[in-house]
Amino acid sequence: MPYTVQENRGQTDRIGKPHDRIDGRLKVTGDARYSLDFALPNALHSELVLATIGRGRVTGFDLAEAEAVPGVRRIYTHENAPQRQSPRFFGAGGTGARSWLPLQDDRVYYHGEIVALVVADTLVAAREAAAKVKVSYAAEAPAATLDAEGAEVEDPEGMTAIATGDAQAAMSRAATTHEAEYTTPAQHHNAMELYGAAAQWNGENLTVWTPSQFVYGFQKGLSHELGIERSRIRVISPFVGGAFGGKGMLMNFVSLVAGASRELGRPVQLMCSREACYTVGSFRAETAHAVRMGADEQGHLGPYEHTGRELTSRPDTYLVRGTENTVRMYDFSDYGSNVLAVHADRQTPGFMRAPPEVPYFFALESAIDELARKTGTDPVQFRVQNDTQKDPVTGTPFTSRSLVECYEAAGERFGWDRYSPEVGSMTDGDELIGWGVATATYPTQMSPATARVTLSGDGRARVMTAAHDVGTGVYTIFAQSVADKLGVPVSAVTVELGDTELPPGPISGGSITTASSISCIEQACDRIAERLAAETSEGSTPAERMKASGRPFIEEYAEWTPLQTGAEALRAHYDGDVRIVGGAQKDFCAFAFGAEFCEVRINKYTREIRVPRLIGAFAAGRIMNEKTARSQLLGGMIWGIGSALHEETELDPRYGAYMNDNLAEYLVPVNADVQELEAIIVPEVDKQVNPAGVKGIGELGCVGTSAAIANAVYHATGVRVRDLPIRMEKLLPA
Amino acid sequence: MSDDEPTGISRRGFLQTGALGGGAALVGSQAKAQEAEAGTRVPVTLNVNGKPYEMMLDPRVTLLDALRERLDLTGTKVGCNHGQCGACTVMIDGTRVNSCLTLAVAASGREVTTIEGLASPNGDLHPMQAAFIEHDAFQCGYCTPGQIVSAVACVKEGHASDEAEIREYMSGNICRCAAYKGIVAAVQEARDKIDGEA
Amino acid sequence: MRPFAYARPKNVRDATDIVTPMGVAGQGGAWLAGGTTLIDLMKLDVLRPEQLTDIQALGMDEIETDGETVRLGARVTMAQAAEHPAFKEGAPVLSQALWKAASPQLRNVATLGGNLLQRTRCPYFRDVSKACNKREPGSGCDAVGGYNRLLAVLGTSENCIANYPGDWANAAILFDAVVETRRGRRGRAIELGKLHRLPGDAPARETVLEDDELITAIELTVPSWARRSYYLKVRDRESYAFANTGAAVALDMDGDSVREARIGLSGVATTPWRAREAEAFLRGKALSEETAMQAGAIAFEGARGWGHNDFKIPLGQRTVARALLETARLS
To answer: What is the CATH code for B127-197?
Structure first.
């Protein structure tokens, strides 16, 4: 049964307007079922056992005590695990979160890797038995950090190097130069919904419920790992309890759960513990940045060099390669960049909200601030005077770029004209006040999309596509789009998402869903409108013509591919592969922009850092729903507060183990951390970027915040923190 | 302290039978032979949203898991299982608690209110639920049931007098989508409606 | 979680009769009050009690005041006590140390008796695969040389640097708190300052309580001048976080000069902690930034950092100073 969402309130607002979420009622009543909320008859429960060494081999198991727990059905280890094939790693064109599966051999690549799965009649039995599984290891000393001895540096040349002109020579000529290193820590998504999976077989047909940002990709990956036809696998993920990139790749325990279910002849459910989510899922890896830049006497930017180092696992090369975007932000004369991979004894990282931009723009926007200060230029003015309307790399114009307008809008609201540039010059009693700004950006990307739209004689419409609503408001904007195009109320539109029974939708990643799916859905609606217009001239909207025509039902199926792609991309899309294009292309340069202004307050004695004011202005083309759009931007900005001040997954390098793998010690912002917070949406019309005129906003909000806060902290204290997170100990006077 | 209160029962043994709400059967440590075996299921009566449910449960089962696994009341969410996020918030006897740290057996005989119990039987939303929609006080919606139950209790406790107090007293519910601004606005609006009705 | 037997006795005498002591290995019997520490640690397999004796039917949930004496049943919740006028108005530090702790949900069930016995958040204590002398005597201490940013700098030993994570005990300790207990038929009274033991060479034994001893009440003596008191909790985020450092301060002022100062420290010590030398230093002195900083320095004499937590020493000193200055500003 498809999970359909339809609002039941009489709101009539349509596209562009603020509109309540049509899935709101389901979510506030607890009726929305997430992947692990479906009661499967006669289901078994399972629990993971995780490696307690950082590297090495499993040498044996003592399962006697665990197997003696009443209700235990089976304990899977590498000695008896269901047969599966190694995943195709998404970094190499596949859909798997990493290139290997748990329990395939005795090898331990990192601390917290899955070494056994206990399946039992009840949750309590599975958990008790998992605690009683005794594993012996041959442990080796892990090299688990960027700078650890034994970590291997890879320079995947060509893939990442971008260079023009002669940055080194230009540096020696520059009137003012700045050179520094910046680092960002390991961070975890910590979506409120845990990782997990439930599998149920009906003969040779498998149904899997698992939190997913990409049901078609998961289907394809499971087909490969389990060696069964894609058509026999259904993946369902109607609601996703937060994803932030962490649920876009197929996690490698899902096929294990499915395999266990097949062998045991009963549905099997796995809900990973919060602790386990830190290692069986993905994460944002540590990065380090060597940045050099220079400016002339007039404060115009000249050369820019940026070398990034990113941590990845031993087997896989995963890089976010943020210099591809940083070099395009200002009117640099010459630049050179490269990104190095550091292979360490850790799990393979993956994408996490604005994967390249969060670390790389912290480095860029901190460095820009430092250079602006050296040139004696106001940090807003410095950015404005170095703005560019064409991509400095290719010379291609941006489809639209409203960065200056964003600075003007947010600056005015913030009251930047009262900025006193001298460090420590703004205080209030025992509080040191600092103001800071930074640029936010995110490439506008798109993917092929398909959708089915129906309109029936009674005035009801339906849109079906296996896209995903991870909290972004997709259910609602799809309904608004159809309502607007067909002339029916939003409440008459039913939306179905997150199910491989539906036409393939885009991965919910890279902020592409709205641009891609709305372009597709509007195409289907337009065709319905054309067909009805050919049948009758009575009425002014498709819905009225439908009524006039006496037709009971009309349906259109649309396929949409971005201009820059073609048939191959569409075929790949049907095949469960990702084909994202956008950002900086050869003849096309599309980005959304924003400017963030913040005020920090720091107690002069104890140096707690709080952000009482954070104001951002963003220009991102056409806004589908001002209400849900603003929520995404605000949420992103708060993510930025967390990233700047709180979030770091702490590692014990002796074990390669995360030591704060819980929500009491891995701090994310709570309600009390947020005071005055505002997102201004700067109007922008961009008819070139895609038919829908839409740029993605899901990630944009969190990009500039870290640097804005770091810059404000410097302004307040004179301490330049180049290593996130910014914590009180870094600000204590020596 | 009720030292001398008669127990009304035979001071025989750790719990193995009998309705808990009426008092546990006890045995002195001198009577170990009659104590319940660890792991033995025990009778539990959960009064959830005004309805009694009787069941036999392993005493290890948390209220959270009993609601979800036994009663299929999956509005109450699992976010951390350690009292660190608030997604599992329910009210017991009108007080908000983390159901993940509450043993179902310890809640036996007490009144439990979950998100499923807030709307009227005719489907009308509780003012807090309506306000959450109105102010877009959620995105993914996963923490939302816990937020709403917590918010209802927050108003009832009298800890919703202004924005600062709401922020502090709603900080036990983490929202990773960070809909905090909407949550504060929703609590204020619902508070005024609830106070107006009272 | 390991299996256990559950009982909910109806009076204290029965309760203290039936409980089987939980020894240092985390096995045996345990009292279940709010359960916010116990159930948490059972889920992590750190504690493995075979019996839980649920004390919810035992009363012990009243707050009585008589002049300067405040007597709290051990089952009074943190939320209840935080709202009580005897604290809110009579000694704000005792209310603030409660509402600045944990979350409303946790405070609604966590009891004062349990709060006094809150277990450390040391990550190595909570991870059964790592060495911890507190959890498994003789296994070593992985926190020394490991990730120890949040751990103690006062009262530590080479065997254990786990901090006492609670707030309220560091405020209650300022007011001659006495803990009443019951064990079988016998009761006794223990000064709060003597309830906890320093880790020394036996960190698993955290208090002087016998394994089957039950806290029944806590009695405080709150002088009228305790209206001028304040709890400063310094943490990375604004709420729902443990203290990096904290100071509970009560001041009896004579104009600008200190008649009596009482100072408790949070987040920095292995047990509830009172800075008596710093208190003595301040007696009779005018309170200024200089004397406040001196008092802070005295409070942390003998402190030892373990790497990540070195900052707690200067930060703790400043925390004391700031708390003193802010308390003095109160009317």
So the answer is: 1.10.150.120
Provide φ and ψ at C67, rounded to 5°.
60, -125
CATH class (in words) of the domain with range A447-578:
alpha beta
Q: Is C243 part of a structural domain of the chain? A: yes
Residue range A481-518, pLDDT digits in tens = 999 999 999 999 999 999 999 999 999 999 999 999 99
Same fold, A378-444+585-730 and A447-578: yes
Tens of pLDDT along A422-467? 999 999 999 999 999 999 999 999 999 999 999 999 999 999 999 9
Nearest CA to CA, how far is C227 from chain B (Å)? 22
Write out pLDDT tens, residues B14-67. 433 222 232 333 333 333 323 445 668 999 999 999 999 999 999 999 999 999
Place of tokens 């995947």: A156
- Cβ neighbours, 10 Å, residue A536: 15
Domain holding C247, by residue range, is 226-329
Q: CB-CB: which of A127, A650, A669 is closest to C237? A: A669
pLDDT in tens, B176-197: 999 999 999 999 999 999 988 7
Distance spanning both ends of chain B, measured CA to CA: 35
The two structure tokens encoding residue A351: 């994408």
Distance in angstroms (rounded) separating the CA atoms of residues C85 and C65:
10
CATH number, position C305 = 3.30.390.50
Q: Is residue C321 part of a domain?
A: yes
Q: Which of A23, A34, A635 has its CB closest to that of B142?
A: A34
Is it true that domain B20-117 has CATH number 3.40.50.1820?
no
Q: DSSP state, A472?
A: S
Tokens read off for C202: 């036996």
A631 touches chain B (CB under 8 A): yes
pLDDT tens for chain C, 331 residues long, are 999 999 999 877 777 666 655 554 566 889 999 999 999 999 999 999 999 999 999 999 999 999 999 999 999 999 999 999 999 999 999 999 999 999 999 999 999 999 999 999 999 999 999 999 999 999 999 999 999 999 999 999 999 999 999 999 999 999 999 999 998 889 999 999 999 999 999 999 999 999 889 999 999 999 999 999 999 999 999 999 999 999 999 999 999 999 999 999 999 999 999 999 999 999 999 999 999 999 999 999 999 999 999 999 999 999 999 999 999 999 8
Residue A408 has a pLDDT of 98
> Are the C-beta atoms of residues B45 and B53 closer than 8 Å to each other?
yes
Three state DSSP letters for A521-543: HHHHHHHHHHHHHHHCCCCCCHH
- Residue numbers in B near C126 (CB within 8 A): none
- Domain residue spans of chain B: 20-117, 127-197
If we measure between CA atoms, which residue out of C46, C40, C274, C303 comes closest to residue C156?
Answer: C303
Identify the CATH assignment for A378-444+585-730 out of 3.20.20.70, 3.90.226.10, 3.30.365.10, 3.30.565.10. Answer: 3.30.365.10
Is A435 in CB contact (< 8 Å) with chain B?
no
B71 Cβ partners below 8 Å, 6+ apart? B46, B48, B53
| Nearest-CA distance B36 → chain A (Å) | 16
Is residue A67 among the annotated active site residues?
Answer: no
Residue A286, chain B, CB below 8 Å: the answer is no
Of B61, B82, B116, the CB nearest to A30: B116
**Total domain count, chain C:** 2
Contact between chains at C60 and B1 (C-beta distance less than 8 A): yes
Q: Which residues of B touch A194 (CB under 8 A)?
A: 78-79
Locate the chain B residue with the closest alpha carbon to C110.
B97
Q: Which of C105, C235, C240 is the mutation pick for testing B, counting most B CBs within 10 A?
A: C105
A131: Cβ contacts below 8 Å, ≥ 6 apart: C1, C2, C45, C128
Nearest CB partner across the interface for C234, out of A606, A659, A672: A606
Element (H, E) at B180: helix B180-197
Q: Does A25 touch chain B (CB under 8 A)?
A: yes
